[in-house]
Amino acid sequence: MLGPTTLASGLPFWLAAALAAPLTWAIGRDAGLSRLTSAAGGLLVAIPGAASPFLAQPDNFGLFMLLGALSLWACARGLQGDRRWFVLGGLLVGLATLSRNDGVLLGVPFALVFLMDLVRRPRASRIGWRAAVLCAGAFLLVTAPWWLRQWQEFGTLSPSSASGRILWITEYRELYSVSSETTLESFLGQGPEALLSSRLAGLAAALGIFAAGPLLITMTPFVIIGAWSRRRDTAFTPWIVYAVTLFAFSALIFAVHVPQGTFLRSCLALLPHAYLLGFVGIDRTVRAVAARRRSWDPQRARRGFALIAVGAMLLGAVGASVLTTRSWAADQAVREEMSVALADVPPGERLMSPDAGAYRYHAGRAGIVTPDDPLPVIEAALRTYDIRWLVLERAHIVEPLMPVMKGEVRPAWLSSPVFSLSSETPIPRAVLYAVCLQPADTRCDA
Questions:
Q1: Is residue 327 part of a domain?
Q2: Helix/strand/coil for 194
Q3: Using an 8 Å Cβ cutoff, are 256 and 172 in contact?
Q4: 95 occurs within a structural domain
Q5: What is d(CA 215, CA 373) in angstroms, rounded to the nearest whole number?
Q6: Across 377-438, where does the E strand assignment appear?
Q7: Do 288 and 232 share a structural domain?
Q8: CA 194, 198, 200, 201 torsion-angle sign
Q9: Cα separation of 41 and 354, whole Å?
Q10: Residue 220: which domain range?
Q11: Listing from the earlier edge strand, what are the strands of the sheet with 419-421?
């Protein structure tokens, strides 16, 4: 109906992100929070700090936030004795897992809740085996067809991690390297000191991203206070379990990936409950101060601090959106201008670039991503995929090709710059080269 348009690509994800706001209100009311607190939490979910610009992308940010929060709410209601919600939670965790592989971690609270239920006396059981089996069955009902397809096509349930290039890298550049060794042996070969420091760095990065990104620092202490004050509340127990699981998993398994955007996507599932807890923390803080300052009106102070929190988050969201979209616009401008330069290139000729998907979108050109490897390996990749053109962007260049962009090195298989985008610095913003892999190709003649 909408055709292959930007609106058609983004609309489902915009709707998913929009639904997270009323969901937050419902979670807050179900947890016994006031209308003001629930509404304020829903408002912040609609403008989640520095994460705001990402919700407008045709990506899984908003979808995972919605499915993650729904899953945790279903688990909480199951913990409170509603077995239908516990079963529904299995379905929701399955959908979240299809949205993101690490969505399976949302199942950890369900498993722990069931184990806690087992140690109760039978007459105090809230969940029982039947609901637990149905919950697991609902999860498999959603995920099994996809996993079966993965196994039939690739011989593994997770093709992206089968090579080890996801799990066993020691630095992020190895994700885009075809020559680096990425095995369990090479991973453990770092030594205990490097291994421990990288895990701690990953944990610190995850905590920093969550505190400075969606919470914009201002809400961080109040979320901590709120979470501590509600630590025994069954409405928030699954959230606390998932938060601990996610931070631990990110630090231990994906520490290298955390600063590169992986954690930001995952932590959005925490936001609806986190914002509600933030306002709970504000309420607790105001009460504590009001008990020592008789001149304070607690009700008025709560409203005032809530408005300040919403205002600060709104300003932060606007500022973060401006900075982020400005960065995206700079990249887009480079690729649009490069696409004009590629307009006369025969349509079947492939190119190597920092972002093959972007050039496919803007220029309609098939190609591959530049590997982060020495020049001989890059040349081998060019030959393997019969690449005819090379695009270098200063903002996204691999280190071995920087001397080429500066004009200090020129391999025999590369032409002089065919087109370049100048900048205020000696290094241009982007350069287009012809790649000559056949003796008869004269484009690279001196």
A1: no
A2: helix
A3: yes
A4: yes
A5: 37
A6: 387-393, 419-421, 430-434
A7: yes
A8: positive
A9: 39
A10: 6-292
A11: 367-369, 350-353, 387-393, 430-434, 419-421
In a domain, 320, yes or no: no
Q: Are 17 and 68 in contact (CB under 8 A)?
A: no
Q: What is the pLDDT of residues 187-243, one digit of tens each?
A: 888 888 988 999 999 999 999 999 999 999 999 999 999 999 999 999 999 999 999
Which of 378, 355, 349, 383 is closest to 368 using CA atoms?
355
Q: Cα–Cα distance between 242 and 104 in angstroms, integer? A: 11
pLDDT band at 382 (very low <50, low <70, confident <90, very high): very high
| This model's pTM is above 0.70 | yes
Cα 87 off chain centre by: 27
Give helix 107-118 / helix 61-79 axis angle, nearest 10°: 10
> In whole angstroms, what is the distance from residue 217 CA to residue 227 CA?
16
d(CA 27, CA 363): 45
C-beta separation of 54 from 63 below 8 A = no
> β-strand 387-393 against 350-353: which pairing, if any?
parallel
